[in-house]
Amino acid sequence: MTQLDAGRSFLLALALVCPIAAAQEAPTDAPKPRPEVPEKPKVRLPEGVVARVDGRDITRTQYFEFLGRTAFKQKDGDQTVSQLIDETIVRSEAQRRDVEVTDEAIAQRIETFRQRVQERSLGKKDFDQYLAAQGISLEDLASLLQLVIAQEQMVRIDAHIPPGNEIPTRDMNLWLTEMRKKNAPELLGAPEGNVVARVAGQDITFEVIGAKLYQVLPESEKIGRLRELANLTLLFAIGVEMEVEVTDEDLDAEMARRRALLAENEQLQGISYEEFLKAQGLTLADVRRSRKVRAGILLDRIIDRLYPREQLEAAYAERKEEFDSLYGRKRRASLILLRSGAYPNALRQRSLDEARLELEEMRERIRKGTGFDYLARTYSEHGSKERGGDLGNFTAEDPNIPKEIRQIAFTLEKDQVSSPVRVSQGYALVMVTDIEDNPGLDAMREAIRNHLKREWFAKQVEDAHIELSDV
Predict the structure, then answer these.
(1) Are 151 and 105 in contact (CB under 8 A)?
(2) Residue 185's pLDDT is what?
(3) Cross-strand partners of 198
(4) Which residues are CB-neighbours of 169 under 8 A, at least 6 positions away?
């Protein structure tokens, strides 16, 4: 786990959760775009059950633990652990000192926040709507403010700050730093169980971390994570039914595969896989325990059973035209991009028409003998310019190449240059430098296997009876 910020006060944590003083409202004539949020599931399940997969219940506790484990050693997870440690320290110290925070004090502080929201939104934003937009309820805010006020009372005493005087944020931070030293939080880097940290005699578990994270997740992500957990539950259930399991040998093979992929990366030469993980705050044990890693291995083992060599070849023979189109025919092409329109070059502003005309002139220069490579290195505004515009090999369905480029490339002959092509960032010239058609099944075997794998699991999800409820 990365080093956590020991000087972080609850006032700062509150600013992150409910940033009234820190964040200005957007001008009313320039509203921020709102992402589409899928409609909440309408299924009613028993209390404490948030999803049901073919009759198997997923409880709220399991869901929160999944959220916590997913965020473990990630930025959001580390910040949440740090905040929970701070909360636990303040709560424990307040109990030890018999510090009392009255309901009146909390209500008064909430009213102050309410007034600030209305002032900053010119009275147009409802306070409850504002809290909902921040991902917290009024009860959540009251609980957090109770801790903030308790910390203020203790800091005022310890720092000898007279009543009525403002408490500097610096004093709040220093106090919390000293309390952390006194309580010495124990961070468990690779927990075997459910406990991530211990402080002031209290355990911080994956479930507690997940519950905290849930408060600030966008609605679409809450549902998306629940669907992800339901899909994992389905896959592991299928593995049990098919008597397919992930063995230590499978995990060893997966670690070897990942090491090989790392060794192929020119930018990471000389770095071991363990060093690569350490830079991310992870260990090899973390990866081997990961439920997602095990799910990926399990799915591979299932597909190996369903599509051994003979069955995969039969699937290819049956769908040859489709698979050849997707994974067989390849093009290698180079690109010259001129940004324009909504994606202008910061140094050279141009309209779409101007970009198109410039590329027409370049196309004419190429026709007269100027090298495409030279023009790409000189004028292109794409990341491939240092390679002379080379995009490498790609298929007609390669998601890494823009659709417009793929479509035009598969209409060109070798060494033919396209007319200017409208793309999302402006206009581009495309030249095909190599053509490879129908390389044979062996060259496509892995791609076809992955296609069948995605197709099979999508069908399992479609056929399963998955019910999702409000958390």
Answers:
(1) no
(2) 87
(3) 186, 203
(4) 9, 11, 12
d(CA 49, CA 3): 36
pTM for the complete prediction?
Answer: 0.71
Amino acid at site 185 = P
Spatial distance between the Cα atoms of 158 and 176, rounded to a whole number of angstroms? 12
C-alpha closest to that of 289 among 242, 240, 254, 237? 254
Lookup: tokens for 20:
């009234």
Length of the chain: 471
Q: What is the CA radius of gyration of the chain?
A: 29
CATH code, residues 330-436: 3.10.50.40
**What is the Cβ-side half-sphere exposure of residue 465, based on CA atoms within 13 angstroms?**
6
Return the H-helix or E-strand segment holding 203.
Answer: strand 202-205
Query: Residue 286 is encoded by which pair of tokens?
Result: 């973390």
pLDDT tens track for 12-53 = 344 333 333 333 333 333 333 333 444 445 568 888 999 999
Contact 390, 401 (CB under 8 A): no
Which of 113, 108, 154, 105 is CA-nearest to residue 130? 113
pLDDT in tens, 210-262: 998 888 888 888 999 999 999 999 999 999 999 999 999 999 999 999 999 99
Whose tokens are 């931070």? That residue is 173
CA angle 61, 58, 301 (to 5 degrees): 115
Let me know: does 383 contact 347? Beta carbons within 8 Å: no
- Nearest-angstrom CA–CA distance, 116 and 111: 9
Q: Which residues of 89-121 are buried (b: 16+ CB within 10 A; e: fewer)?
A: bbbbbbeeeebebeeebbeebbeebbeebeebb
Q: Which H or E run contains 249?
A: helix 248-264
Task: Round to whole Å and give the CA distance between 336 and 388.
Answer: 9
User: Residue 233's closest CA among 466, 469, 463, 44?
Assistant: 466
- Provide the angle, in degrees to the nearest 10, between the axes of the packed helices 60-71 and 206-216: 90
Q: Residues near 362 by Cβ (< 8 Å), separated by ≥ 6?
A: 336, 370, 375, 379, 429
Q: Are the C-beta atoms of residues 65 and 210 closer than 8 Å to each other?
A: yes
Domain boundaries, the chain: 10-25+36-222, 238-322+445-468, 330-436
Task: Give the DSSP letter of residue 436.
Answer: E
